[in-house]
Design a protein that fits this description.
This protein is mainly beta. The chain contains no helices and five strands. The protein has strands spanning 13-23, 26-36, 43-53, 64-69, 79-83. The N and C termini lie far apart (31 Å).
Length: 84
């Protein structure tokens, strides 16, 4: 039986590669997805960059991280780090 204090976080989680760590408490993570063109059925890679909030921890360019959606932290940041 679950109590009211147990919360299940259903926020989507993504895996990506750190491409920038020059900001304070923020890293930029690139997530690549494979898409298929609707008419020609050719597959192509699409990349989207997310600004992810990190309180502490040093992440270098090239690290693979897992992050999830959270409340807005700033104008651009809506994600937080889950694990490395």
């Amino acid at each position: 039986m679950k109590t009211t204090t147990d919360k299940v976080n259903k926020a989507p989680k993504w895996k990506g590669v750190v491409v920038s760590n020059k900001m304070a408490k923020t890293i930029v993570v690139a997530v690549s997805t494979l898409k298929t063109h609707p008419k020609y059925l050719k597959q192509y890679r699409s990349t989207k960059r997310y600004k992810v909030h990190v309180e502490e921890g040093t992440y270098v360019v090239g690290d693979t991280v897992t992050f999830q959606e959270c409340r807005p932290i700033s104008r651009d940041k809506r994600h937080k780090i889950v694990t490395t």
